[in-house]
Design goal:
2 copies of one chain form a homodimer. Chain A is of the alpha/beta class. Chain A has 2 domains: about 110 residues, 3-Layer(aba) Sandwich (Cobalt-precorrin-4 Transmethylase, domain 1); about 140 residues, Methyltransferase, Cobalt-precorrin-4 Transmethylase, Domain 2. Chain A is about 25% helix and about 20% strand. The first copy, chain A, has a 5-stranded parallel beta sheet, sandwiched between helices. A 5-stranded mixed beta sheet of chain A has the order 6-7-10-8-9, sandwiched between helices. In chain A, strands 11-12 form a two-stranded antiparallel ribbon. In chain A, strand 2, helix 2 and strand 3 form a beta-alpha-beta unit. The first copy, chain A, is elongated, with a radius of gyration of 19 Å.
Chain lengths: ~260, ~260
């Protein structure tokens, strides 16, 4: 007899942006494997679980994926409810496919619980929709991060072809991203909104243009950053006078904050 | 004194895929404006609210957006907590931008609460990740639906340029979608997974190829359909012998079901 492994999206950060299903699974989990960036308030819901950090944090101190797979399988052979909690959604930049393949090969039952992905929280925080009726009807989500042994990617072409773009895990590569987007034909005047720690009390937002993006290479980001690209973000920049931006944050109920470079 | 309007994502359908924040807001809402497709179990959380259906259902019987905007503003002038509940996420094909613009013009306070978008639930249900390490690093979300007065869109180009595509609100336009994707250079052998009513007990899944997509024009879909496009969906088709597909559905705890055309 083996247990079930639940690959669960933890959402963008704020503990109350977890789904009801995820919260209930955490409450009855025997073992919880979680990414480094999952909020302590979210982990606290797993009252009875043995908690094991296996997380990746910008590529540093990461537990090898193969080792995570093995631990999930071992846990499923000893326990009933195993939760693998991943930042955002498991199926969008969550490396779920490798864990699914390992679980299927080991004939372990699994279920996926979707979550709120970071770009949606960033868009909510800015109050600017990724889609705009009649103007933005396609949105590309991409990451410039490359796995070991992976070949070149068309990620910048995908961003350029869509009306709106969302770049994940690009904080440390501002210069390379700017070069790739320019090469893919994105005009240098295109507005880019950067949201760090979307949905959390200490989130920061910037609105710049593609031309200014390389300047961010020197910016010290400590949390996850989402870059949103599209004409609609010019409104935020213009409304707030340059790079200043009002952000809405129901999580913290803080007064309207301004973030500037 | 005016109240606050919360533009809230209801998630893909299953009531337990609502976020904790959304559930708490529903519980204290004075007035609830909701789309037609929101699950009765989700609406039931709004115990004390006056409930008003303003939803669009495949374009039929829809309340004009301008009238919805006016009702939101009127409600904010009479009540404290107004929830505008939208299927999926408000900022991705949710027409939030029009309501935000109206609320800002009327100086009504608002907050956005993100939700789980349908493509992530569809991906979870199939057990196949939208991104695949080293293989699929970009995902385009698009809709072929056109607003009144909107010009032609590059939505098919955006889907073709990304490694993985997700098409929303395309159920009634299978033939037109197939033509547009072929014209944009998507090979006719490309696998397409269709998930109707993702996350609900009565969901259905199909795995076909782009070549077979026009045949679906005669299929009667009654719920929302997401089309997922990408090489990774061939695995599902091959593994299950043609068009049959095993789907995982933690919502209903039903045995592994097979759906075939």
């Amino acid at each position: 007899m083996t247990g079930t492994v639940y690959l669960v999206g933890a959402g963008p950060g704020a503990p109350d942006l977890l789904t009801l299903r995820a919260a209930r699974l955490l409450e009855r989990a025997d073992v919880l494997f979680h990414d480094a960036l999952v909020h302590p308030g979210t982990l606290a819901l797993a009252k009875r679980a043995e908690k094991i950090a296996v997380g990746k944090r910008c590529g540093r101190h990461s537990t090898a994926q193969r080792f995570i797979n093995k631990r999930l399988i071992d846990a499923a052979r000893r326990h009933t409810t195993i939760v693998r909690l991943k930042g955002g959604d498991p199926m969008l930049f969550g490396r779920a496919s490798e864990e699914i393949a390992a679980l299927e090969a080991a004939e372990i039952r699994y279920e996926i619980v979707p979550g709120v992905t970071a770009a949606l929280a960033a868009s909510a925080e800015m109050g600017i929709s990724l889609t705009q009726r009649g103007l933005a009807r396609s949105v590309a989500f991409a990451t410039p991060r490359i796995g070991h042994g992976a070949g070149p990617s068309n990620w910048a072409t995908a961003i350029a072809a869509a009306d709106t773009g969302a770049i994940y895990m690009g904080a440390g590569q501002a210069r390379e991203i700017a070069d790739a987007l320019r090469a893919a034909g994105v005009p240098t005047s295109t507005p880019i909104a950067l949201v760090e720690n979307a949905s959390l009390a200490h989130s920061r937002s910037f609105v710049i243009t593609l031309e200014e993006l390389p300047e961010l290479a020197s910016e010290a980001f400590t949390g996850p950053v989402v870059m949103l690209i599209g004409a609609q973000f010019a409104v935020a920049a213009a409304a707030a006078g340059g790079r200043e931006l009002q952000i809405h944050s129901p999580a913290s109920q803080r007064p309207l904050a301004t973030a500037s470079k």
